[in-house]
From TrEMBL:
PANTHER family tied to this protein: ALDOSE-1-EPIMERASE, GALACTOSE MUTAROTASE
Transmembrane segment boundaries: none
Cited Pfam families: Aldose_epim (PF01263)
InterPro entries, A to Z: Aldose_1/G6P_1-epimerase (IPR008183), Gal_mutarotase_sf_dom (IPR011013), GH-type_carb-bd (IPR014718), YihR-like (IPR037480)
Residue ranges of coiled coil: none
Keywords: Isomerase
EC number(s) recorded for this UniProt protein: 5.1.3.3
Organism per entry: Amycolatopsis thermophila
GO MF annotation: an example: aldose 1-epimerase activity
Protein name: Aldose 1-epimerase
Amino acid sequence: MSLAPSGQQYPIAHGQHHAVIVEVGGGIRKYSAGERPVLEPYAETGMADGAHGTPLIPWPNRLGDGRYRFDGVDHQVPLTEPAKGNAIHGLLRWRPWQAEDLRGDRVTMRTRLHPRPGYPFCLDLSIRYQLTADGLSVTTTATNVGDHAAPYGYGQHPYLSPGPGRIDDAVLTFAAGTRIATDPDRQLPTGTEAVTGGAYDFSSGRAIGDLEIDYAFADLARDEAGLAWVRLGGNDGATSELWVDETCRYVELYTGDGLRPGRRRTGLGVEPMTCPPDAFRSGDHVVRLEPGDRVTTRWGAKLT
């Protein structure tokens, strides 16, 4: 058998919970509870289109013109979304990660982001994927192993599954106070607007319908443990749920309308993010990692 486009496959399981973590990008290819997908999978024979399940490091979302300034120095990274003049989703999506501590119900993926033109900083990254009776947890730690302070942001790009069918009939429940508006051509931030009472208010739960969404949301409602939740109820009676911890100040929702036919609107992209789109230019909530500093972010998913 030829090697999968996503590289080595690392299955983990706990009871009825099953997931597959992949070498390329260090992301998650599938997660199901029994036969029901919780996160929409992509095929072992396919690539991770739409950043499917992939960590977005050292910045999530778009960076306009691929340019930013940090500590008085200008930097330029390659434009990976050239049609829009943006660099998108960081530098590690297509890099191989190494698996460690594969123990049946967990695996830790590791890589080092070496200094490079445009990002002359050195980070060690680890992502622990673990399954328990409560579902999936994902714990990401970044450590600055270089000699200089480094700008850092984290995101990841799973898609919640509605079960059989498309997301149009799925019931989305998600409470946030603010939507980050973007321009239609480059999808870079233009301002913010209140969510309550508008087209993107899903706080009481309602069907997505034909609404197209590709926006980041802030001021997330949180439970007593500090977690924010996104819930997607399928027409099979099951609900896929994703939670983010307090380091994730933003969640991007993406209905997948830009994906290829057959993949459009079959899952809802729910992207935990520590900073907003274009953060390396705006500086909004970019983590400053001094040499030796580390930061840890957690999110997870389950089926109810």
